[in-house]
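SUBJECT: protein chain
CONTENTS: sequence, structure tokens:
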Amino acid sequence: MRRTVLPGVSVVVLFVGCASSRTVNLWPSAAPGSENWSQKEIVTRNTPLGTIINNVVTPTLTVFLPAKDKATGTGIIVAPGGACIALAIDHEGNRVAEWLQQRGIAAFAEVSTAGEEGRGDAA
């Protein structure tokens, strides 16, 4: 677990002075355990839940920092669900992160790896 947390900690340090959202990869190359995956990430927009991502191979973190005058000093990682197949990144990720950001809370929306649809081998 420690290995998974450290890249995220460095991301937090990188964006302390930033007021807008930015997305960064959590690993410099393939995430551990996904080095041999061959599936392609599929992004579907305009669904009833907003944007859905299937077959995630490259985990990312989108940083939503509040304005300095609203910042409370609190931060939270938002991990959207999707049954280890798809992620409802808008409905359960970005919208939640934006809501927290507006209330002075730093939010970090995670797009975590999910195994190929139907295989259930999420890392």
Q: What stands out?
A: Residues 19 and 116 are 35 Å apart (CA to CA). The helical segments are 2-14, 90-102. The first strand starts at residue 22 and ends at 25. The mean pLDDT is 81.
